[in-house]
């Protein structure tokens, strides 16, 4: 495998959002991008999982086959990649560079393995953990989303327990936000990012 260092571009500090599947990461990040158009840009990951109804190729993810994705990984095209619940996911160097070239704050929505691997790179993002109020509520949200088979749901809940343990490790995350009431969690997220948001707004005004 080729080395996976990224060319760091000068500009706003990227933000990594992680947390158990179903906790509400996409919901929060979509709100952020809607309110702050021209400030944030989403790093569009690659995945081998099939698109869900309503998801669009090149917007939610780049949907690829395992062969294509593995070839990209072997070629050193990815900053990080991970197997999650039976599928491959990964952040390409191009996805991050695409956002950074526009001087936007690059938002990454990645799992715990991605967090660990990004820490080994020179990307230097802020790490934010989004957490559920309880495992019962997490399960309710994941079931309510109606996107997972029972098998996938159980796998995701098992992984969630490991992710919650990891988040307790000292220094794993810079900020921890409990997503209980959505508006409160969103306000906390905005507060954590205020400094970076103000910097980008100042440059672009
Ligand atoms: N604070 C909240 N209260 C109630 N429901 C919520 C809250 N936040 C998100 N949800 C709902 O929970 C479900 C899961 O949210 P979402 O898809 O954003 O999770 P996710 O963390 O991005 O999951 P994944 O990692 O699997 O992509 C969605 O149906 C969403 O509408
Ligand atoms: N390590 C990475 N994890 C990623 C990436 N893109 C998404 N994810 C994580 O996968 C799970 C499942 O996502 P879903 O869309 O199938 O529900 C979730 O925890 C995401 O954060 C990535 O590029 N690298």
UniProtKB/TrEMBL annotation:
PROSITE patterns: GUANYLATE_KINASE_1, GUANYLATE_KINASE_2. It is an enzyme of class 2 (transferase). Keywords: ATP-binding, Cytoplasm, Kinase, Nucleotide-binding, Transferase. GO terms for cellular component: cytosol; photoreceptor inner segment. It catalyses: GMP + ATP = GDP + ADP. It is found in: Cytoplasm, Cytosol; Photoreceptor inner segment. Residues 12-194 form the Guanylate kinase-like domain. The keyword Kinase applies. GO terms for molecular function: ATP binding; GMP kinase activity. Signal peptide: none annotated. It holds the Pfam family Guanylate_kin. Its EC number is 2.7.4.8. It comes from the Eukaryota. NCBIfam families: guanyl_kin (TIGR03263). Belongs to the guanylate kinase family. PANTHER family: GUANYLATE KINASE (PTHR23117:SF23), GUANYLATE KINASE-RELATED (PTHR23117). Monomer. Interacts with RD3. This is Guanylate kinase.
């Amino acid at each position: 495998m080729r080395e996976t260092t990224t060319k760091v571009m000068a500009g706003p500090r990227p933000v990594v959002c992680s947390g158990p599947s179903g906790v509400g990461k996409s919901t929060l990040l979509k709100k952020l991008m809607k309110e702050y158009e021209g400030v944030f840009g989403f790093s569009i990951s690659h995945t081998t999982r099939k698109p869900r109804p309503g998801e669009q190729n090149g917007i939610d993810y780049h949907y690829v086959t395992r062969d294509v994705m593995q070839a990209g990984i072997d070629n050193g095209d990815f900053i990080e990649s991970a197997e999650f619940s039976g599928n491959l996911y990964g952040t390409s160097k191009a996805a991050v560079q695409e956002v950074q070239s526009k001087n936007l704050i690059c938002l990454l929505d990645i799992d715990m393995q991605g967090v660990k691997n990004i820490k080994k790179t020179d990307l230097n993002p802020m790490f934010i953990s989004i957490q559920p109020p309880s495992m019962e509520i997490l399960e309710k949200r994941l079931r309510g989303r109606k996107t997972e088979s029972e098998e996938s749901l159980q796998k995701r809940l098992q992984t969630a327990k490991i992710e919650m343990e990891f988040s307790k490790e000292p220094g794993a995350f810079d900020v921890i936000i409990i997503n209980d009431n959505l508006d409160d969690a969103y306000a906390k997220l905005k507060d954590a990012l205020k400094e970076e948001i103000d910097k980008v707004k100042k440059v672009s005004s």
